[in-house]
Amino acid sequence: MATAKILCAGDGCRQKITITGMNRSDVARKAEYLEGKRLCDDCHKKELQAENATQAEKNAELGMPELNGSPKQVLWAEGLRYKTVATMQGVLSNFKTLSANSRLIFLFNSIADALRQSGINKHTAQDAMDQGALLDCVLKMYDTRTDASWWIENQELGDLGLEIGAHLVNWIKAKQGKAEVRPDETTLEHQARIEAIAEATIFPDSPITQNPVLIEVSLHEVVVTIDPTIAECREVMKSSPFSRYALSNRYSVQGGTEKMGSVYDRATQIAAQLLEAKLPIRMFSEQARTKLLNADYEPYQKEWISHGLDGSIVIPHFYNDSLYTTIRKIKGSKWNAIQKRCEVPASAYEDILGFAEVHGYKVTGDVLKELEDAKQVAEMALLNPASITAKKAEQKPRRAKRPTLSKDMAPVAAADGLLDDE
Is 215 helix (H, G, I), strand (E, B) or coil? Predict the structure, then answer.
């Protein structure tokens, strides 16, 4: 781990910010990119407060009711409420073409969920939307939700869609002459979902964004979904030694193997790296969250001594000349020019284990067993060398010697036909 310091980008601020990276070249690249862009915690808070204050004035100009809550909650919620205005305006003006916008898919799905739970078919809902009901429902949402805490807890588009859908259900039922149903009664699943989201979401101190990074844990894989517009998200995932790029906003991490470790350890380590970069996370796995809160996880181990596909023992040197030289000093080591790797024999078990301890490598279980077997054979040879010698003799029979003529042997007479003519 390497660190570097850059100056805060705030006007007149001379505070230094610490940047971390995997190595010196990585941290130098980050520092060069973030120079003049990253704000310190104090400047970031001031910037957010100024932005939210401006947006609160614009909300008042639009005729929105005042919010209830503490001064900090109200200021935060005003900013969130203002940002939804632009989104909703886009929804209302381009409703029929919104399915192509991936950011609004959650909104559609949530509205559909609220309608489906109330037994309203999509054709009835489409007619209502075409008649302007959606606009009425959006305005009612702004008029009825005056608690700052509600806007903070429901800032996702999917949450807003459920709320709009609940109002749309009432609009359709009123039009059909049926009794109106309160939104709270039609969104029990929504409330449970909100509670689960709140429990799964963790914010760092002075977050640089309000959009959490989603971390999903399955049996053998961790999938991380980021906001591609936030450079810090991309930087964290690219610098992670165990993540694999999958899509424009998704990274995949394999787990559940000896070398990769538990999926919960990998998810927890990713979450810790994101929080350290001031990025909020959302992780529904309770086991991973517990590990994160207790800082109880096994860090990723990159350096392993393992078997190659051909069964040879391989020590990777990661193109480090110093490591390569040290590995080549192990007795019996060789360079595989085809596979571009260093291979060592099990008979050098002491040197291999010593190298692993000094340089922080781990040894896989199957290699460790092979080294232990080689050690036992060597110890048996010391205790009973004759048996080992006899065993080797059985494996490699000695070639018979050619007979030689001794002085005591009588000469053999040559046949008459073989004598030279004189």
Answer: strand
Running DSSP on this structure, what letter comes out for residue 297?
Answer: -
Which residue has 């054979």 as its token pair? 377
Radius of gyration of the chain (CA): 36
For residue range 32-59, list pLDDT tens digits in order. 877 777 778 778 778 777 877 787 787 7
pLDDT of residue 391: 52
As a dihedral over the C-alpha atoms of residue 281, residue 282, residue 284, residue 287, rounded to 10 degrees, the angle is 10
Beta bridge partners of 244: 252
Work out whether strand 304-307 and strand 362-363 pair parallel, antiparallel, or are unpaired: parallel
* Main-chain dihedrals φ then ψ at residue 218, nearest 5 degrees: -120, -165
Residues paired with 202 in a beta bridge: 281
Cross-strand pairs, 6: 17
* Angle (nearest 5°) at CA 15 between 14 and 18: 135
Q: What is the largest CA-CA distance in the chain?
A: 142
Q: Specify the pTM.
A: 0.51
- List the structure tokens of 327: 């590995």
